[in-house]
Amino acid sequence: xxxxxxxxxxxxxxxxxxxxxxxxxxxxxxxxxxxxxxxxxxxxxxxxxxxxxxxxxxxxxxxxxxxxxxxxxxxxxxxxxxxxxxxxxxxxxxxxxxxxxxxxxxxxxxxxxxxxxxxxxxxxxxxxxxxxxxxxxxxxxxxxxxxxxxxxxxxxxxxxxxxxxxxxxxxxxxxxxxxxxxxxxxxxxxxxxxxxxxxxxxxxxxxxxxxxxxxxxxxxxxxxxxxxxxxxxxxxxxxxxxxxxxxxxxxxxxxxxxxxxxxxxxxxxxxxxxxxxxxxxxxxxxxxxxxxxxxxxxxxxxxxxxxxxxxxxxxxxxxxxxxxxxxxxxxxxxxxxxxxxxxxxxxxxxxxxxxxxxxxxxxxxxxxxxxxxxxxxxxxxxxxxxxxxxxxxxxxxxxxxxxxxxxxxxxxxxxxxxxxxxxxxxxxxxxxxxxxxxxxxxxxxxxxxxxxxxxxxxxxxxxxxxxxxxxxxxxxxxxxxxxxxxxxxxxxxxxxxxxxxxxxxxxxxxxxxxxxxxxxxxxxxxxxxxxxxxxxxxxxxxxxxxxxxxxxxxxxxxxxxxxxxxxxxxxxxxxxxxxxxxxxxxxxxxxxxxxxxxxxxxxxxxxxxxxxxxxxxxxxxxxxxxxxxxxxxxxxxxxxxxx
Length: 643
Hints:
Blueprint: H1 5-13, H2 15-18, E1 46-49, E2 66-68, H3 69-76, E3 81-84, H4 91-112, E4 120-127, H5 135-145, H6 152-161, E5 165-172, H7 180-192, E6 197-202, E7 214-218, H8 223-233, H9 238-245, H10 249-252, H11 256-268, H12 277-292, H13 306-319, E8 330-331, H14 332-345, H15 352-363, E9 366-369, E10 373-376, H16 379-393, H17 399-407, H18 413-422, H19 426-439, H20 441-448, H21 456-464, H22 470-480, H23 486-492, H24 498-511, H25 517-523, H26 529-542, H27 548-554, H28 560-573, H29 579-585, H30 591-604, H31 607-616, H32 621-628, H33 633-642
Parallel strand pairs: 3-6, 3-7, 4-5, 5-6
Antiparallel strand pairs: 1-2, 1-7, 8-10, 9-10
Helix pairs in contact: 1-4, 8-9, 8-11, 11-12, 12-18, 13-14, 13-16, 14-15, 16-18, 17-19, 19-20, 19-21, 20-21, 20-22, 22-24, 23-24, 24-26, 25-26, 26-28, 27-28, 28-30, 29-30, 30-32, 31-32, 31-33
């Protein structure tokens, strides 16, 4: 029988996992104390179920469920669940928090056992980017790092039997697996141990979701969440940063990681907001080079070459071993070999490769993990440095080479998008977008909105000039997420074709411009219920209090799907003005409307909302559901009194 005590104690005592309770940060600086200026981790991240897409727009969508991220993962882990989210949205953080909480809980159960059999869940985190030989080997390596050394036969026996001590396997990063063979091994493992509780995360679903039926997606941060984070991180400068950002807050910082980086940049960049995401990364890494590490001792000349060295490593990883594969971790030996080539070309001493790699590991945005593997602190950082290297190569790439070796492959999409934000050459920017449109219209539209803002009128013009059906063109304009298309989309809300109006409302939701609120409010009264439904969601994404009265009216719409979306949108806006209408919606005839109203009240979470929810406890189970999500003394005291 396996003694799990040392393992559980190691997880519970690990600073690596405990820090997620209070910090959202990439790394500490070796040799320096943790900076005093940190912001609390956003604990109230939410997820929603991903249902099957309707075959046509006349078919009504299935009910959408929403939970705090850990509640959703726990609910569906037994039959396996896949968590999807944008880079930096908190997927890995969620697994780290779940690992810690479940380990502490398992320890507590063990200590409180009194000669009676209890089911104890043992959480194990499997970081798929470290894959080398098999899934079983990854599990053994993780157990070994946390003071439990067992052989593969013992592990397999436990996985198959798992009577009193049951595994909870947390697979992080399907998209980071290094090869098709690795993906097939994971599929086979999942099928072989189908009875084990498993949670998987991925950056995007793509074409391979491992045939997992239940899927959750991370919801973007709401504007109130983002504002609260900024004010907590920058108590003296937060208001000024928010004022400068205006309606660009969601454009640049819709995930916790990007929001944290943007705050760091604003704080260290003379209180200025960069023009686009690529420049956010450029300034952030520049600060890291020059300021945060200015007083640490490094080898001779090492610091002067840090950016070039990191670009080389990122390029090596992104190239992978084939055109379709990407690596997010390579061996230390491979990294040293890559640096050696560069150092040799610079006619520097050969031994610098080992010394300079040590510097980067100590003081920069790469680190050692797993079995002596080197990885960037986050895949987004790797993609930024890849973009910088690609920027140097771009003028020398033929059109055919750029299309077939880069634009044609999914792994280059994010580096290409970051690259376009860094380009200060209009000719090159238009060239990339034009070639992207020739490869795939949706790819080209996305890239058209990624270029430096001063060139977007020209690149978006390429999309506007496409000879495609109007419905599809409106969809493409939405993919640009550019403010340059807001007027065209607002006009499309008046089109005689309801499909065009539907697409326009969805597109405006993706862009979230406050200038479109008036037209979207009119769309809330559209003759077509699907257009009204989409307009309600778009207004929720924009998150302006200007839309509250229109959305409150939509809570009384004859179509339950419109009412559902109106309640959800009011939760995103998070204003106390909506409390009375949402409390009324707790009595709606439709279960999902009641659930979304509870979700919205939980997100508002004010003392007023709590007081009204406590009054509603007698007639509404949804009021109880909302109160359990509000972790305040008032809510807890009220629930105890109700008991």
